[in-house]
UniProtKB/TrEMBL annotation:
Gene3D superfamilies: P-loop containing nucleotide triphosphate hydrolases
Protein name: ABC transporter related
GO MF annotation list: ATP binding; ATP hydrolysis activity
InterPro entries noted in UniProt: AAA+_ATPase, ABC_transporter-like_ATP-bd, ABC_Transporter_VariousFunc, P-loop_NTPase
All copies of domain ABC transporter, residue ranges: 5-226
Entry-linked Pfam families: ABC_tran (PF00005)
The organism of origin for this protein: Lachnoclostridium phytofermentans (strain ATCC 700394 / DSM 18823 / ISDg) (Clostridium phytofermentans)
Domain of life, source organism: Bacteria
Length: 231
């Protein structure tokens, strides 16, 4: 099976400050990946580099066997709240994405808008942080891409609706699509993941979640805490 993502010896630094280095891993199609790691280790930065929104300092990123370029970037679904026009209403954001992306499914977006209980007339700048995250999730999942990148999609969202959001992700994920979710809510989300990537300053550890449970006899959170404790 061909890798959908291959990261080779990736490094990112700002001046003398090294965010991470020597990061390498491969991801197969159709998987849901949890990207986890301590705060400040560059999870958002890594997603941006994979998505082609930020340049690495060293190393290479391959998407479907090709280095990420403008054409490849167009088929990667990544929506950041900072990318949205604050004066847009929810409805205007859906219209904008409908016009901008050929693979955007407007019917799916309107259905998700109802499921996520978003007011289409509400301006984005008036939305709570949780509702902004819901809108980003809606706009991301309404694209028919092969790779979905999600950065803390459950941040600021009330606990009682998190289960519904997890269900929505599973129901709307195309069978052959890959999703990478950066999160610190490992205990709540671990059942979603096929694999996890533990991001550290000088390496990335890719592990199969079923193997962690069957071989190590641990939950994903327990395994993660054990790994970072013994670094």
């Amino acid at each position: 099976m061909n890798d959908v993502i291959r990261v080779d010896n990736l490094m990112k630094k700002y001046g003398r400050n090294v965010v991470f280095k020597d990061i390498s891993f491969t991801i197969e199609p159709g998987r849901i990946i949890g990207l986890i790691g301590n705060n400040g280790l560059g999870k958002t930065t890594l997603l941006d580099i994979i998505g082609g929104y930020r340049k690495q300092s060293r190393g290479r990123v391959f998407y479907n066997g090709r280095e990420t370029n403008k054409k490849e970037k167009e088929s990667i679904a990544l929506v950041d709240p900072k990318q949205l026009f604050p004066f847009f209403t929810v409805s205007m954001a859906i219209d904008y994405f409908t016009d901008f992306f050929d693979d955007f499914d407007r019917k799916c977006a309107l259905r998700l808008c109802e499921q996520l209980k978003l007011d289409q007339k509400q301006k984005i700048q008036k939305l709570s942080k949780g509702n902004q995250e819901r809108l980003c999730l809606l706009l991301t999942l309404s694209r028919k891409g092969k790779l979905y990148l999600m950065d803390e999609p459950f941040a600021g969202i009330d606990p009682q609706i998190k289960y519904d959001l997890k269900k929505i992700i599973l129901e709307n994920k195309p069978e052959d699509a890959t999703i990478i979710i950066a999160t610190h809510l490992l205990k709540e989300l671990e059942f979603l993941f096929d694999e996890i990537i533990i991001l550290m300053k000088d390496k990335a550890i890719l592990r199969n979640c079923d193997e962690i449970r069957s071989i190590h006899k641990k939950s994903i959170e327990e395994y993660y805490l054990e790994v970072i404790t013994h670094v």
